[in-house]
Design goal:
Length: 172
Amino acid sequence: MIPFADHCTRVEEGIRKYGIQIVTRDIPDPLTGDLDGAEIDVDNALTPEQRLFLLAHLFGHTVQWNTDPQSFAMGTPQIPVREELLQPLLEYERQAAAYGLALLHETGVTDADQWFSDYSACDQAYLSHYYRTGEKGDFATFWRDNTPPLIPQVAPAFTPMKHPSRMDGVVI
């Protein structure tokens, strides 16, 4: 069994070492988190499992926003997404997951690779559906076990810089 709460503590410490603030607060449903490039906000009602995924994944997007000027626009797509933009968006999500997995390893979390790969695959399948249809379905119905493993991607050096808050319903 993965000790999600203990892993959250490690990951939060790791994120703070990058100069990124973490705020736990009530985030209006159906959203679960937000980010601005310098801060990661997570809903106070999340389970430790959900929190661990969201912290690592939003860290990945934070890296992207601070290292690639085009990535902020990728994180705020017009829904439904035009088909030619779908693959770049899914690659954007995959890269965020790869940064998140590297963060897990960096903080000593090495027993959750398959779980994180499965959760990330579920997130991508969910988002693919949402991007195509604009419908926010039941996240759990997109879950598959034993998905292909992610390859961690170490974050390049960056300085956290604040961008406008998203709160547009993408982080759900």
